[in-house]
Amino acid sequence: MTIPAYSLLQRQYLPLKQKLLLTKSRIEEWYREHNGDVYVSVSGKDSTVLLDIVRSLYPEVPAVTVDTGLEHPENSRFLKKVNNIIRLKPEMSFKEVISSFGYPVISKMTARKLYTLQNPTKNNALTTNLYQTGMNSKGEYKSGSKLPNKWRYLVDNADNIKFSHKCCDIMKKHPLMQFERENKLKGYVGTMADEGIERRRSYLITGCNPYHGKGYSKPLSFWTNQDILQYIHETGIPISAAYGKVIQNEKGLYETTGEARTGCMFCLFGCHLEKEPNRIQRLEQTYPSLYAYCIRDDEEDRPGPGLGKVMDLIGVPYTCKEMRRREEGRL
Ligand code: SF4
Questions:
Q1: Which of 59, 77, 278, 288 sits most deeply, having the most CB atoms within 10 A of its CB?
Q2: In order of start, what are the domains of the chain with their CATH numbers?
Q3: How far is the CA of 247 from the centre of ligand 1 (A)?
Q4: 12-53 pLDDT, tens per residue?
Q5: Which residue lies with its CA nearest to atom 4 of ligand 1?
Q6: 312 pLDDT band (50/70/90 cuts)?
Q7: How many CB atoms lie within 10 A of CB 162?
């Protein structure tokens, strides 16, 4: 089943009330297809909304969260209060993932290209060539497949820093897949098509509920961040304190008084696109000891994941001091 792009656009423009009806019907379809053997994967505000909707139909459905050790402390506190929640642990820590495979930087797609180019083998020669030149095996030029020129210097960097796209799979996907296999349950996730190219593509290929139940149900796919915030504002459901409150600004748009997004605290995906103070600079202000840990590299008796050296390499500031000096025109 494929969804035409205009259908996605039409659904994204529906009023929230109609989106809610459509979402509920997708939730019911998935529930029936799997005889009620389902769960909701929860982490931030989007999946908190999803859990609320699923449980308004089926109150017994369990919530599942993966304790990566990278959650915002307020999110961890909030999730502890969710009833009927199962906590999973990844098989590796973040530090083990980055030492074994490399850092998640820029975007999942760019990190994948960097990983392949830094680890060429006989088996990935065609892909390596595609990422290097944009030429596929048929000799056609695919500009989107090439590693953007601006990131080429990262492949052979002087500090030999490695990059990889594997972190999410190891830290989040694998524990959920193992949980599904062992418990014969199928998951709902709160992802939305407007969150990135990969999510949009996935929705256009499968719709909310993948055919024959392979993968996850994504019944909020056609929602936007504004819909999520409106739902929270109108229903008053509790969310993690990291977001603060949901309010409507003078233009009628919904916004949070705290963090807008609360993914993994040390993740560098998309960090280069953020305005200052970026997520790491905000961490410096809110959780200085976590900040100090994530910036430092391994020292004799003080280990650290070394994000500082990576941010230096990709040219992203990570101290508030730098930000202030820039604001004062001294940098
Ligand atoms: S969001 Fe970032 S840090 Fe978190 S698991 Fe995915 S890649 Fe790793």
A1: 278
A2: 5-92+170-256 (3.40.50.620), 105-154 (no CATH), 268-327 (no CATH)
A3: 28
A4: 999 999 999 999 999 999 999 999 999 999 999 999 999 999
A5: 264
A6: very high
A7: 18
